[in-house]
Amino acid sequence: MATIIGGIGTSHVPTIGLTYDKGRTQEPAWAPLFNGYQPVADWLAEQQADVLLFFYNDHANSLFFDFYPTFAIGVSPSFELADEGAGTRPLPPIKGHTDLAIHVAESLVNDDFDMAVFQDRPLDHGCHSPLPLLWPHRPDWPGAVLPIQVNVLQHPLPSAARCFRLGQAVRRAVQAYPEDLKVVVVGTGGLSHQIHGERTGFNNEPWDHQFMDWLADDPQRLTTLTHADYIRLGGAEGAEVIMWLAMRGALSPQVRRLHQNYYLATTTGMAVVLYEDQGPEAHP
């Protein structure tokens, strides 16, 4: 059967992709961030993961506010990269895994998650900004991406607890898939930041570290926080860390934190964490 071997939490700041594409990753202002991804890339190469299952959000590049689903899953055999106004990134199309995606979609609906299903929609920086930092892409990606889009833009948003339960349901779906696949679950977004209003430029570094500690050791505590709590502590856009909770829900109750890197140099607290799954059991 398919197995979830680990989880990754990562920022998806668009300037990460821009800096990578321009070959500026070792400039002094950026090296602490990009060097922090190398242990994660090394672990993925060592484990030879087959699928990265991404919880991400679309920033109104493929999904728009006239019809913006709470949860949506992509089932295409491949995905183009969205042009977000500056041309498409110099990366190959992203491979999909149609059979696994269809299986997960059916399982989630049977598990009472009313999923929207999409094909032929490009993936935006919520997914592809960190992707080449995790996987090599020349001449092609080494595996497939299964994208699950979460609404963190247009209210009403799914609660933190709902996102955690989505991750639990994804775990059940993956473990019921009959093909032997190594799956790594990725949650993107955050950490603390706000890009509009009176608190533009807001960051909360102590909260970012507290969030990552609770995520590893006491994720249920994070499910009790409201959107207002997340916005107060991490800024309006910082509330998107509920996608990290979906990732954590897809992992075993006890995880081994293999790596963590945090860097605050722009308007966003940027981080990457790597967890190793510790067994077949699920969260109660």
UniProtKB/TrEMBL annotation:
Top enzyme category: oxidoreductase
InterPro entries: Xdiol_dOase_suB
Pfam families according to UniProt: LigB
One MF term in the entry's GO annotations: gallate dioxygenase activity
SUPFAM superfamilies listed in its UniProt record: LigB-like (SSF53213)
Domain Extradiol ring-cleavage dioxygenase class III enzyme subunit B: 8-272
Highest taxon above the source species: Bacteria
EC number: 1.13.11.57
Keyword annotations of the record: Dioxygenase, Oxidoreductase
Name listed for the protein in its UniProt record: Gallate dioxygenase
